[in-house]
Design a protein that fits this description.
Layout (H helix, E strand, L loop, with lengths): L1 E2 L13 E2 L61 E2 L2 E2 L36 E9 L13 E5 L2 E3 L1 E6 L5 E7 L5 H15 L7 E7 L3 E8 L2 H9 L11 H12 L6 E7 L10 H10 L3 E7 L1 H10 L3 H4 L12 H15 L12 H13 L2 E5 L10 E8 L9 E2 L5 E2 L1 E4 L3 E3 L6
Parallel strand pairs: 9-10, 9-12, 12-13
Antiparallel strand pairs: 1-2, 3-4, 5-14, 5-18, 6-7, 6-15, 8-14, 10-11, 15-19, 16-17
Amino acid sequence: MAVAVRGPMFSTVFSLIPINKVTGLRKVLLSGVVAVGLATMPVLGFGQQDQTSQPSSSPQAAPQQNPNQQEAPPDAGGPKGDSGPYAMPKKGEEPPPPPPPDRPKKVEGMPDYSIHVEVPLVTVPVMVTTKDGQFISSLKKENFRIFEDGAEQKINDFKIEEAPITAVLLVEFASTTYQMELQALQASYAFASTLKKDDWVAVISYAMKPEILVDFTQDKNAIQQALNGLRMPMGSETWEFEALYDTLDRLDRIEGHKYLIFISTGVDTGLKLTLDQILKKVKTTKDVTIFPVSIGWLMREWCETHGYTQYCHGMASLGMSSIDFLQADNEMQTFARLTGGRFYQPRFTGDLTDTFKDIAGDIRHQYTITYHPTNPKLDGSYRKLKVDVIADNGGPLKIRDQKGKDLKYQVIAREGYTARHTVD
């Protein structure tokens, strides 16, 4: 007779075990193997004691007493009676405990299983500068406090380093603003010239739709050649929101932190997307800092100089929406504030080169704070952030120049972030 054992998670039938070979069998615990007990066969080797035989129920003749019978030795133990001591064997020592079960064996073809717990980690780049843009580099981890939805967070990691950057130049380039934007594009090479060997930069222009002039490259010459090869575009429309949305969508697929230098008048004539839609996209795009460069002021100066004042006031007859440049600047400031960037508004064309050099400095000189949020839910909610700087004693931080004069400073960090959303 033999017993076949099949595990519910395996397709293999284990070999048949003859009954007469069961003696000495050891219990083996395998995941998914069903234990089968054989009621008719004693299982040895698991610490059970042998059962003592029961006295026979058939009567037996009483043995005759032998007066010369020796008493049982004291080692036998037991009480003494009239007919002598009862011989009771001493209880033997307890048998050793059974050996631990064998570890489950790896079955070929069976997948490995593990438990993975995802702990959210938030990274916040922070700039601390004087009012005129000078970076304050002497701060330590203890000088920072970060709050999420009003609750202070424990800073896990803090560093200041010049890490490699990934950046995109997104430039408005329509026929009506060709001359002004060409100057802005040429000035943007001041940013590209600061590239280091591990940096990556792409250049995108847009009118009615975005066009990738140079995909991510580390070649400064390729960027300069693309800028030099620009020709006057045919269209006068400026679909700002669509271009910004498309660029953010592309950047969202790239790991690590990214920087978007957005050179634009801020005027959207497409009206295919609303401001609320683009603001939502800005909030939900992870790890992107936007540095808007408004050329609206320069555009107004150029329009008035060349007699296009009606265009600069947003006349519908020239294909523009009723939005004015002031509102456009406010929108671009919002993009910077939400993502921890800075808004630039050069007043003269000669300021453009310095503007892009300042942006390069902002990107290179940042503190990076990381923390595990006290709210670990992956619910897709928007979390408000606030970063404060304090003195070593916990009081207000004071920054002084070389002459001991107090300097005003600003802390620049993104306003919040959107938590990841896990679908149950």
